[in-house]
Each structure stands twice: as structure tokens, then as C-alpha cells.
Amino acid sequence: MLDDRKTAILGAIVQEYIATAQPVGSSHIAGASGINVSSATVRNEMAVLEQEGYLVQPHTSAGRIPTDKGYRFFVDHLASPGRLDATTSRRVGDFFDAAHGRLEEMLHQTSDLLTMLTRNAAVVLGPKADAAVIRSVQIVRLSTTAATVVLVLGNGSVENEVIEVAADVTDDVLADATVQLATNLVGRTLADAELTPSADPAVDAVCTAALDSLREVSSDDHVYVGGASTVAAAFDAVEIVRQVLHTLEQQFVVVSLVRDLVDRGMSVAIGVEHGVEPLSACSVVVAPVVVDGEHFGSVGVLGPTRMNYPQALATVDIVSERLGRRLEEGA
After folding, report:
1. Contact 25, 89 (CB under 8 A)
2. What residues pair up with 224 in beta bridges, in sequence order?
């Protein structure tokens, strides 16, 4: 555990580096608020902090920058969630007050909101469709041999899939298939839905094709990643930019990362803590979205390890809370 003076100096260095992205010198810290010692004393304490792994000196004559260990100490001991200014809080409130329509659209817009507020990449993860209760289902003809199946779920999500139908299938058969599907599916989830045979093999064939098609897509994750180019701009090294962008394009990796952190009860993972090596220069701040007491999904931001942790924590917290409240009210 660091003593009070080292703690204050480390906190000042982290905050200065977050603000400037430039190595921090002892003379600057000596003049910082709350640091009432000489530049020489600060320099000695910085050397100790470096020896203990909280700081690193990137160049011989340069100041120091925090390590992942330094950021972790800052987050655990110094960085309580910040307070959002009135303008930002009002912007979040106005966004969710006006949010209507399909769940997918709301989640996508929420990722854009997080990116705009934090200047980091944003990740919004919704539930899989096969876990949601089915509210309604309908089959609509598109052409002689094609129809679309539209599924409305209790969480506000809408799934639709195009299926092939035989050329001799009539509109009456499609209407009967809609009734048959509704009878078997409404009030249940796709994961536990079963079809009971009807008196018409043509109707059963359409229903089976519809259910198989919906199940195939409903197991996919609803994940929305915004602001990838924004977070890439925070790095100077081309190779780091390439790794970050490539990893953010892999939805499975992003989903696994966010779910793992939430399952572990972590709100902040710094550098290698999250276990995704290509993102080792990044930190992740996440929060679960709770709807009616159930874990609905997650929201988070991903940025450089020098991200503004108090602001990121406050923003993710308020967005997750407001999104959960909006979904409870009904999209």
C-alpha cells in the first residue's frame, strides 16, 4: 500500500497524463494542487513509484507515465465515478425520453450516444432473441415462391426472415400457417417452442420452414459497436491501431469480452486484465443493463488505458440505468 504522499503524487500524474497524453515531469507535479513538497522530493518519490511498477519512464530525459498497475491503483483508490455535468445528464435524459421503435434501433443509437459522450468505442450488447417471449408472429407473401416471417418479441426486438415456399402455396395456406404459428409460439420462447401438426401438410411445411429459419438467426448476439475509428485515433502506433480495429470487427471476441467482465463482477478492466491480447493497450468500462430484475444485456466503452476513468464510469452507469428503465417502460 502506498503512503499518502506517493498516493497523491501518483494520482496527480495519472490525471495529468489522461489530460495531456504527455510524460509528466516532477516540476509540473510539484506545482499541482495538494502536492506541497519540492520538485526534488517529487522526483525521488516518482523514482520509487517507478521501481514499484506504478510508473515507467519512456525516455531517459522525459517524465513518467502510468503503467497498468498505476491505473489500477488510481481506479481502485482514487477514481470514484465522476459527476456528469448538467448538460450531459440532460442529453442522456432527452435521448431516452425520445427513444422509441425497434429494440435494435435503440441499442444501435445507444452505442452512438456512448461514443459521442466519451470519445471512446462503445459496445452495447442485447439479449439473444431465443430467450425472449414471443408477442406475435406473421407470415407475409413477398412473391410466388417467397414469404417473410415477422416475429415481435416481448423485449421490443423484431426478427424477420425470408423463407421459400412452394409455387402452389396459396394465400389461404399462408394465413392458416400464421394462425398455426401464433397458436404454438405466442407466449413462449423460440428456445422452447414446439409445433403441433395441423390437418394440412402444406401448412405444416410452411410452419416448419418458418420456425427453422427463425431459430437459425435468433441464436445470434445483438451487439452494436460504435466509434471504432474514434478510439483508433487515440493511438500513434500503426500496429496498435490495426490490432484494435481488427479485433473490434470480430463480434464474437467483443461479446465474449463484455460478458466475461460482467460475469466476473468487474466494472473496469485495464490493459491485459481483460485477457484479449490485441487490446492490451486498451481498457474497458462495463455495466449490466437490468430490466425487471433480470440481466438484459450490457453497455460499455473501450478506449486507451489513459482514458478518463471517472467520466467513463459515470457515463456507462447512467446510460445502463436509463436504458434499463426505458426498456421496463416498454419501447
Report:
1. no
2. 124
The three cell numbers locating residue 118: 466519451
Task: Tell me how far apart the terminal alpha carbons of the chain are, to the nearest angstrom.
Answer: 48
Burial of 98 (0-12, 13-18, 19+ CB in 10 A): exposed
CB neighbour class for 159 (10 Å; exposed up to 12, middle 13-18, buried from 19) = buried
pTM over 0.85? The answer is no
Provide mean pLDDT across the span 66-78: 92
CA-nearest of 31, 40, 45 to 3 is: 45
Q: Which amino acid is at 123?
A: V
pLDDT at 323: 92
Residues 216-231 have pLDDT tens digits of 766 666 788 988 888 8
Residues 6+ apart with CB under 8 A from 250: none
The candidate with the shortest Cα–Cα distance to 223, out of 246, 250, 243, is 250
**Cell numbers of 109, please?**
443509437
| Phi, psi for 68 (deg, rounded to 5) | -60, -35
Q: Which of 148, 182, 178 is nearest to 165 (CA)?
A: 148
CB atoms inside a 10 Å sphere around CB 238: 9
